[in-house]
Design the sequence.
């Protein structure tokens, strides 16, 4: 049994909880830790039971709450190496990092993680002291985990509170190489978006079509209505990016895939990442419904729309 809960979807934040067997993962953390926890509790998911966070790509609508959430729960974060590097650059934008410096930073953080496990007891106390107030903002949480005995030592390695990129544990995966987190098997594949690996798509190339065969649940981007985007408020350069082959998938492109590239087998089709400026839920729904009409099976292709402002009820399959 798989439980699939979209907590948020759209350009202001994306996050989904997937549970299978005894394991539970958060896919993307594009909301604040507080909001993620609030929405999880709303749908009856316990944040404390999460085993790991998997990040699809480094755009802020997918990682905004990552560091605080991972630290708060003390769980590993799964990235591709490219996404991890891009995320670290995003948090330290003014510092150019050479590969050697990057390796050095990884080594330091690994050493610090080691030290952390050795002082786990102290941490447990800190966690209790933090209470609910420690959730956010990030600075508050970091300040609460002080290391008084090291404060006077001028040679000490920068501690957690000075390292915005510090994470309890980092694991790398690669596109094309399936891996497992507990009972959940994950098959990552590359897609065309201006990021390392993404739920967001510019268009649907053959390798993605192949990956989307035989799925029980299809979460498909339906970002914008082409006419609304063309006539809408975005500057021309942004319109060009959204429309490009590394941008976002339009309602029309999603419908074209549903009609011509998809096998019609999924029990649920969830339209996701809808633009608030260049789309209307009804337009996305009608366009997809029309495309799905040809599939006869009554139990398949139940159409849902993921929301930006509230979680979607959990789906079991
Ligand atoms: Zn993106
Ligand atoms: Zn996105």
Sequence:
């Amino acid at each position: 049994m798989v439980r699939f809960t979209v907590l948020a979807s759209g350009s202001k934040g994306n996050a989904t909880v997937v549970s299978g067997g005894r394991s539970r993962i958060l896919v993307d953390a594009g909301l604040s830790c507080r909001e993620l926890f609030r929405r999880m509790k709303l749908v009856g998911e316990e944040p404390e039971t999460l085993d790991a966070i998997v990040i699809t790509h480094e755009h802020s609508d997918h990682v905004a709450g990552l560091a605080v959430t991972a630290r708060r729960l003390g769980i590993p974060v799964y990235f591709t190496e490219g996404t991890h590097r891009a995320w670290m650059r995003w948090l330290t934008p003014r510092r150019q990092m050479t590969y050697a410096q990057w390796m050095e930073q990884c080594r330091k953080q690994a050493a610090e993680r080691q030290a952390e496990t050795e002082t786990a007891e102290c941490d447990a106390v800190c966690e209790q002291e933090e209470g609910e107030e420690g959730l956010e903002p990030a600075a508050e949480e970091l300040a609460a985990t002080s290391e008084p005995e090291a404060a006077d030592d001028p040679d000490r390695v920068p501690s957690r509170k000075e390292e915005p990129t510090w994470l309890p544990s980092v694991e790398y995966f690669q596109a094309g190489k399936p891996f497992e987190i507990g009972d959940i098997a994950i098959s990552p594949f590359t897609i065309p978006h201006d990021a390392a690996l993404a739920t967001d798509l510019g268009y649907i190339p053959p390798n993605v079509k192949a990956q989307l065969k035989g799925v029980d649940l299809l979460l498909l981007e339906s970002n914008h209505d082409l006419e609304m985007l063309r006539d809408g408020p975005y500057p021309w350069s942004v319109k060009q990016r959204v429309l490009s082959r590394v941008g976002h998938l339009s309602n029309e492109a999603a419908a074209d895939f549903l009609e011509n590239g998809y096998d019609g087998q999924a029990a649920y089709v969830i339209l996701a990442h809808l633009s608030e400026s260049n789309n209307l839920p009804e337009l996305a729904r009608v366009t997809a419904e029309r495309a799905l009409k040809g599939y006869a099976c009554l139990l398949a292709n139940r159409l849902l729309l993921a929301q930006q402002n509230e979680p979607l009820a959990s789906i079991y399959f």
Summary: Residues 2-172 form one domain. The first helix runs from residue 33 to 42.
